[in-house]
Amino acid sequence: MIYWSNENGEGSFQSKFFQDDEHKHKLSIYINDDRLKECAEKCVESFNNLTDNMIDEVCTQLWENVKDEFTLPKINDVREILNYCWFEALYVDMINDEEEIAYAVEGEGDWGTEVGFVIRDNKVIYAGINYLDYIKNI
Q: What is the pLDDT of residues 62-78, one digit of tens each?
C-alpha cells in the first residue's frame, strides 16, 4: 500500500526486502502524473514480490558494475553487496495502466555513487551505476 504525501506524485511504501539508508524498509515512490497511481500500486506489488532469482540477479549485476568503483571485502554470497548499498526511491516507468510493469529503483552505495536497478515485465533489465540509461518514461 502506498501512502501518498501530496498531489505531486510523491508517496512512500514499505519494502519487504530492500532497506533504505537508515536500515528501515520505507522507500519513497514517485509518479509523473496522478493518473498513474494504479500503475504505482502494480509496481510496488511487483517490487515486493521479486523472486529470489531476481534479487540474486540484481545483486550480481550490482557487484559486476561497481566492483571497479569500490574495494569490498571478499564477498561469499552475491547478496552481501547489500551490506554496502541501500535503496531510497522507486520511480514508475509507465505511461498508462495497459503497459508492462516497469520501474526503476534508486539508491546509493558506500562508494559514494548512485546505483539503481530497472525492472521491466518482471525481468531485471539492468542494475548498477548507469541505471538511468535504461529508463524510458520518467
A: 988 887 777 777 788 98
